[in-house]
Amino acid sequence: MFVLSGMPAGDGPWPARDESRSKMNEGRRALHVLAEELHAAFDRVDAGASRADDVGVDAWVNGAEMNGARLAGMGMDLGALLRMGILETVKGGVRARVLFERCEGVLIGRHRETQGLGKPESADGIGVNARALSRMIPRGAIGSALDLGCGQGFHALRASRHARRVVGTDVSRVALHLAWINAVINGAFNVEFRRGSVYEPVEGMTFDLIMANTPFVFSPVHTVTSTGAAAAGDAVCGAIVRGAGARLNEGGYGVFICNWEHRAGARWDATPRAWVEGTGVDAWIVHLGQSSVTRVMEAWFTKRAGPNAENEVGCVEALRRWRAHVAREGVEALSLGMIFVRKRAGATWVRCDEDVLAEGDAPGGVQVRRVFENTMHLEGARASWLESRLSAVDAEVVGEDGQGRVLLWQVAGFRMPLVVERDVLGFLRLFDGARRAREVLRAYRARTGMPLSRCEAVTQELMRSGYLEAGVCG
Questions:
Q1: Across the chain, what does the average pLDDT equal?
Q2: Which of 52, 271, 282, 342 is deepest in the core (most CB within 10 A)?
Q3: Strand partners, 103
Q4: Alpha-carbon 6 to chain mean position
Q5: 157 in any annotated domain
Q6: pLDDT single digits (tens) 95-113
Q7: Stretch 258-276: mean pLDDT, rounded?
Q8: Is it true that the peptide bond before 272 is cis, omega within 30 degrees of 0?
Q9: Peptide bond into 220 cis (omega under 30)
């Protein structure tokens, strides 16, 4: 059964607690009919139908006006859809207040008109960062998952397919209302939504997976809650990442896409390292890019282009306050990156990488697991990885320098580019998962005369970059 908790009666979105069970059931039935129409429309698009020429697609994706009688003839309950805020009446008919897209098989509704970033009155669609986050989450059967700042519920709904229980949290009642609608449309019966900031709604609970497309707050311009005090810059990102270790079960993963601030003279990884160290997790920090403060200010506060440019006066004031903030804090640049953590008892490690992520939509969750497993072997006793049965993963040669060295890329997800001597290719192919690493190294040394120390160094580099996958030991 769906749960929408933390919503006082009479002060939340449809369905409020004091509404009758029959009205809620009417809403569910209406959403099930809508789901059938939406899937049919997107199937037509996948088959080559034009979004402009297809009536259903033009209406639910593009927001064109619809004929109410036609919808009723299709079995849709217009009254229920109007009460839920999915439809609105316009002159001559109705139109969608909630527009839909289908991503990775999940139907997701977003508000037709949004109020701007940092404001909780609306829920946006699935952006670039959200798609990147989804692609890099390790998937597999787990007991529980938490989607922090769930918005319209995309990550929670994806997790509902492999987790027995999912909790999504957000500060926005309106976003949670839309998340509930999306859950019903997708038949995700194992999802619960709670209202509140960061980890407050799940106090005392632990999870096997925590994920968040974390908000960067251009404070003192914006706040992250409708009632709380302003949180500056990357403070919310830091609170989410720092708090993950205490709320993950042993072996559980946290996956976060974040922005963080660069202070003058600091390394790009200084801030995220401080977030994860001492929190009981292994951590892999992947740097995706960096922007100057000037560029960010132009993008956010230009009147015509920026999402915060509501009017000329507000734009000028917002820009003034942001300039004062970065000057006071000594912020020189902003970084974007992904932070992966895994809960593990004992001594933990932190590794940081740049320029390893591929362009495109290839999933990388399997690689994330591989990096953690391999790094754990390498950070442990020397015998740990030597006794592993290693297997080579799919990779391709994408270039060479004419001096016997080649550039390798992995086929999917993280490219993990690696320059190696050409003879390493033959060495790599020997790892078939049948023999222990120690046996492969000895055999290659006997065949080529390569010193054992170099064999070990090359194997470690291949493991660290994910070109070898560690199997069972012994």
A1: 83
A2: 342
A3: 106
A4: 24
A5: no
A6: 999 999 999 999 999 988 7
A7: 90
A8: no
A9: yes
Q: Is the pLDDT of residue 228 over 60?
A: no
Q: Tell me the angle at which helices 437-448 and 452-464 cross, rounded to the nearest 10 degrees.
A: 130
Cα angle 209-162-138, degrees, rounded to a multiple of 5: 50
Residue type, 50: S
Domain presence at residue 411: yes
The better pLDDT of the pair 24, 213 is held by 213
Which residue range forms the structural domain that includes residue 380? 365-473
**Helix intervals (H) in 331-397:** 365-379, 382-386
Provide CB contacts within 8 A for 73, sequence distance 6+: none
Render 457-468 in DSSP notation, one character per residue: HHHHHHHHTTSE
In the chain, how many domains are there?
1
Percentage of residues of the chain with pLDDT beyond 90: 49
Amino acid at site 134: S
d(CA 46, CA 462): 39
Residue tagged 């593990």 (tokens) = 344
pLDDT score for 148: 96
**Residues 407/417, Cβ–Cβ less than 8 Å:** yes
Interval 43-76: pLDDT, tens: 988 888 766 566 677 888 888 888 888 888 888 8
Tell me, yes or no, whether 419 lies in a domain.
yes
- Is 190 part of a structural domain of the chain? no
Q: What gap in Å lies between CA 319 and CA 325, rounded to an integer? A: 10
* Chain mean position to CA 237: 13
Residue 187 sits at φ, ψ, to 5 deg, of 65, 30
Coil, helix or strand at residue 151: coil
- Other beta carbons within 10 angstroms of residue 216's beta carbon come to 21
Facing residues of 211 across strands? 147, 255
**Number of neighbouring beta carbons within 10 Å of residue 401:** 9
Yes or no: say if 407 and 399 are a contact pair by the CB < 8 Å rule: yes
Residue 196, both tokens: 């509140």
β-partners of residue 331 are 263
Short-list 181, 151, 196, CA closest to 80: 181
Q: Distance between CA atoms of 321 and 313, rounded to whole angstroms?
A: 13
Q: Pick the range with the lowest mean pLDDT from 59-73, 208-222, 406-420, 427-441.
A: 208-222
Strands 98-103 and 106-111: antiparallel
